[in-house]
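User: tokens in, sequence out, please.
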């Protein structure tokens, strides 16, 4: 009995000591998508500055596939020691919970939500050949020629897909879905004119809008974007209540010691508040929302419920 008690005391005493010394070697941030997306870019922004603060390497590892599930499941099953983290998204930690009937992880129970990172504006864009310059004109065109218009998405169940399906339901229009394997190929086909419109992430399409290769019709969220302040929201363009966002955040495996989570949370928050990072966010149509660690965990639970209802209502399933 005394031996067991001594072992328990030593284990309890060991956790704070590990947290106090953390980190003692390299940290890995696993991104569930290919390089170049906003979740990847800000994982690298956080990783670079975190390495400077902690004095240890921070490696960003891209593991795309299965809608982000491969990378996310890897982190869920990693040791809860703060050395393997996930750059989770609205897909991996909200939408996929309902979209995939046999999801290999639980986005709430298998993770500790560490820090909110980025809230991304979305933008409805059209190829220059599309005879519509506003959301209203697009709706009129779609109703005049049902099924003739098409939209490119990053794949079934992605925010670009769900946003389009919500738009179709709210406006009573028929627009043909063309799914791609990711945002980049979908966007490239719209730029090339092989697809006509897309409900895309602002940071991804902004260069093409500014160059004149794509037309910006409406912002997907509830407020206008600082990157394109003259472009109205879809909601204020005749589709009341339309509000589709996109976000990313830092997650650790469930059971990661609270002191380590607190250290990671503080560092991620510090980096995202840096003036140079804030300036970059504004230029790219992105926002950082400061949240406490418990508030972020509560936010994620709310998103799982919210998007679960959307997925069921739209009738989307993973293919």
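Assistant: Sequence out:
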């Amino acid at each position: 009995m005394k031996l067991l008690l001594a072992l328990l005391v030593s284990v309890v005493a060991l956790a704070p000591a590990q947290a106090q010394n953390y980190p003692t070697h390299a940290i890995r941030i696993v991104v569930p998508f290919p390089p170049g997306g906003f979740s990847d870019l800000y994982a690298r922004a956080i990783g670079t500055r975190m390495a400077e603060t902690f004095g240890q390497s921070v490696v960003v590892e891209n593991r795309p596939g299965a809608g982000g599930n491969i990378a996310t499941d890897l982190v869920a099953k990693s040791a809860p020691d703060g050395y393997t983290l996930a750059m989770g998204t609205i897909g991996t930690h909200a939408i996929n919970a309902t979209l995939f009937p046999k999801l290999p992880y639980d986005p709430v129970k298998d993770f500790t939500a560490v820090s909110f990172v980025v809230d991304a504006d979305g933008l409805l864009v059209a190829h220059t050949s599309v005879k519509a310059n506003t959301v209203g004109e697009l709706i009129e065109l779609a109703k005049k020629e049902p099924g003739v218009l098409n939209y490119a998405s990053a794949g079934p169940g992605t925010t670009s897909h769900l946003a389009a399906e919500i738009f179709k339901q709210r406006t009573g229009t028929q627009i043909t879905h063309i799914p791609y394997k990711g945002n980049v190929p979908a966007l490239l086909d719209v730029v090339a004119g092989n697809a006509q419109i897309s409900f895309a992430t602002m940071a991804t399409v902004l260069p093409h809008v500014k160059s004149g290769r794509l037309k910006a019709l409406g912002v997907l969220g509830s407020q206008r974007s600082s990157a394109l302040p003259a472009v109205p929201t879809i909601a204020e363009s005749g589709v009341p209540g339309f509000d589709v966002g996109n976000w990313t955040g830092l997650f650790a495996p469930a059971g990661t010691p609270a002191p380590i989570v607190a250290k990671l949370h503080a560092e991620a928050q510090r980096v995202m508040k840096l003036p140079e990072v804030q300036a970059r966010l504004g230029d790219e149509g992105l926002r950082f929302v400061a949240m406490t660690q418990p508030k972020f965990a509560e936010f994620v639970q709310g998103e799982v419920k919210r998007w679960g209802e959307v997925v069921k209502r739209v009738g989307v399933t993973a293919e």
